[in-house]
Write a structure and sequence with these properties.
Elements: E1 2-4, E2 13-16, E3 19-29, E4 37-44, E5 50-56, E6 60-62, E7 67-77, E8 80-84, E9 91-94, H1 96-99, E10 111-117, E11 120-125, E12 129-137, E13 151-155, E14 160-163, E15 172-176, E16 182-185
Length: about 190
């Protein structure tokens, strides 16, 4: 299935030269003059080699036909990351290089989309937003009320995010899993 390059997102699987590649990062560049481009970092599924590719944003790219289903995260061990398909209870193991940096978001029971090819996990797609708890942050400076001033904070999973001054330790917040940006307080 052909899609335009600018629609590629992290977790998509692309087919080039008969090989499958998992998209790790995708950025669109719109210069003032010239042609807009899409820069994509990918991992070749067969041997794990990372490659970077650049296309014009309107160029067509072959998106591979892979099985994509929702799985629940169970646990991590020496073998890899274990997931379970909720309707069939079928278990699947994803290796550490498939999960990559996303492992910090894998908490007990989180629902993720795993893309499989011939029964092997090749890419993972996290929910766009996750709830985390702030473990430490700088104290509020009196009089610092400007809405544009953010302060660094560390979450329970080790990620550092920038949060508004009124957020303190122990507060549960929602962050975007793609760029680790603060989205708001958790509603629970």
């Amino acid at each position: 299935m052909k899609v335009i390059a600018s629609s590629l997102r992290k977790g998509n699987v692309v087919e080039m030269d008969g090989k499958l590649y998992a998209v790790l990062k995708s950025e669109n560049f719109h210069p003032g003059k010239g042609t807009p481009t899409t820069s994509v970092d990918m991992r070749r599924i067969s041997d794990g080699v990372k490659v970077a590719e650049r296309w014009r944003t309107t160029e067509m790219v072959e998106k591979a036909n892979v099985d994509e289903r929702e799985y629940d995260f169970l646990y991590e061990d020496g073998e890899g990351f274990h997931f379970m398909e909720p309707t069939t209870y079928e278990q699947l193991v994803a290796t550490a290089d498939v999960v990559g940096d996303d492992k910090v978001f894998l908490t007990d029971g989180i629902k993720v989309y795993l893309k499989t090819y011939d029964g092997v996990a090749i890419a993972i797609e996290l929910p766009q937003k996750v709830t985390v708890e702030i473990t430490e942050t700088e104290p509020v400076v009196k009089g610092q009320t400007a809405s544009s001033s953010y302060k660094p904070a560390t979450c329970s999973n080790g990620i550092r995010v920038m949060v508004p001054p009124h957020i303190g330790a122990g507060t549960r917040i929602v962050i975007n899993t793609e760029d680790y940006s603060y989205q708001g307080r958790a509603q629970d």
